[in-house]
TrEMBL record:
Function: Catalyzes the synthesis of alpha-ribazole-5'-phosphate from nicotinate mononucleotide (NAMN) and 5,6-dimethylbenzimidazole (DMB).
GO BP annotations, alphabetical order: cobalamin biosynthetic process
Entry protein name: Nicotinate-nucleotide--dimethylbenzimidazole phosphoribosyltransferase
Pathway: Nucleoside biosynthesis; alpha-ribazole biosynthesis; alpha-ribazole from 5,6-dimethylbenzimidazole: step 1/2
Catalytic reactions of this protein: 5,6-dimethylbenzimidazole + nicotinate beta-D-ribonucleotide = alpha-ribazole 5'-phosphate + nicotinate + H(+)
Family listed: Belongs to the CobT family.
SUPFAM superfamilies: Nicotinate mononucleotide:5,6-dimethylbenzimidazole phosphoribosyltransferase (CobT)
Active site residues per record: E312
Pfam families per record: DBI_PRT
Length: 342
């Protein structure tokens, strides 16, 4: 399959409709632009309401946690997966607030989670991904398995009626492989992409930068190939997230991206399936420097900039009302020609 083609004629019609609204030129700002994007990806002008939003949170552990790159231990990951199942995690609260459905999937948590419903771990690829500065995150076979899992999860949501998808993340230490993926994708050194993640101090930030630099050097020229890049520097949870994004673009269903994790996966998705980015919008801007660099490369301007760094898909979920507002404005605001009676 290849990425579906956005309906350019519809997007053009939406742009003309925006220009013809009874508002000053440019007065709707990013909301107007979002409405035009939504019309294009839906193939409908004015755009349809965004009613059925599905969030899939990809959970996994990362070997780099044992090397001082994060403020929390790996034991927090399974605890948070349980919180998602219980509906008490931050993204769950926001999902309920905005009428979205959320599902958490254990892709590579370093715990068997025997107390949770079997469906949570039914597609599990591995227990924890490798420490990327010392070894590959996973084998190529495990990477392919994770990509297939992500694609299947997208298919299930779309087949069940989803008209907007969001990929979330849960995994202590996951901003380290995400930054490494962005660095390898863009050819940017570790010093420019390393952020504080969950809030490491200066010493932790220095360790994290060194881990990323070593990982990029270890991956070497393999990073030019997106599959090898994912296998060497990512993790099974990030690979599944990438497969989710690729399949959404192939099926022609829009995606609202979250923070540094989902944007790192979006970069790889675009390399695996050129044209995918046309189906992506950016929900929010994270404080992580790597995310801003990746958004610039993808040509995406985020809807929100609130300093959020929770992950989980929470920033994208918080932006759902803005996308719904964009749809409503482009649909229901009067045309200037009608107001003037001409």
């Amino acid at each position: 399959m290849s990425a579906a083609q956005v309906n350019r004629a519809t997007a053009s019609a939406a742009q003309e409709r925006l220009a013809g609204l009874a508002t000053p030129p440019g007065a709707l700002g990013r909301l107007g632009e979002a409405g035009v994007w939504l019309a294009g990806v839906q193939g409908a002008c004015p755009p349809r309401p965004v009613d059925d939003v599905r969030i899939v949170v990809f959970a996994g552990d990362h070997g780099v946690v044992d090397h001082g790159v994060t403020a929390f231990p790996s034991s927090v990951t399974p605890l948070m997966v349980r919180a998602f199942v219980a509906g008490s995690a931050g993204a769950c609260v926001l999902a309920r607030q905005h009428g979205a459905q959320l599902r958490v999937v254990d892709v590579s948590v370093d715990d068997d989670l025997p107390d949770l419903p079997p469906a949570v771990s039914a597609g599990k690829v591995m227990r924890g991904s490798g420490a990327i500065h010392l070894a590959d995150a996973m084998t190529t076979q495990q990477c392919e398995q994770a990509l297939v899992l992500g694609a299947r999860l997208a298919d299930e949501a779309i087949d069940d009626g989803a008209d907007l998808l969001i990929g979330g993340d849960m995994g202590i230490g996951n901003t380290t492989p995400a930054a490494a993926l962005i660095g390898a994708s863009l050819g940017v050194p570790a010093a420019e992409i390393t952020g504080r993640g969950t809030g490491v101090d200066d010493a932790g930030l220095s360790r994290k930068e060194q881990v990323i630099a070593t990982a990029l050097q270890r991956a070497g020229a393999r990073a030019h190939d997106p599959m090898q890049r994912l296998s060497a520097l990512g993790g099974a949870d990030l690979a599944a997230h990438t497969g989710f994004l690729v399949r959404a673009a192939e099926r022609g269903v829009p995606v609202l991206l979250d923070g540094v994790i989902s944007v790192a996966c979006a970069l790889v998705a675009e390399d695996l399936q050129p044209g995918s980015v046309a189906w992506f919008a950016a929900g929010h801007r994270s404080p992580e420097p790597a995310q801003s660099l990746a958004l610039d490369k993808l040509g995406l301007v985020p809807l929100l900039d609130l300093g959020m760094r929770l992950g989980e898909g929470s920033g994208a979920v918080a932006a759902i009302p803005l996308l719904r507002s964009a749809s409503a404005l482009l649909t229901d605001v009067a045309l200037l020609s009608d107001v003037l009676g001409s």
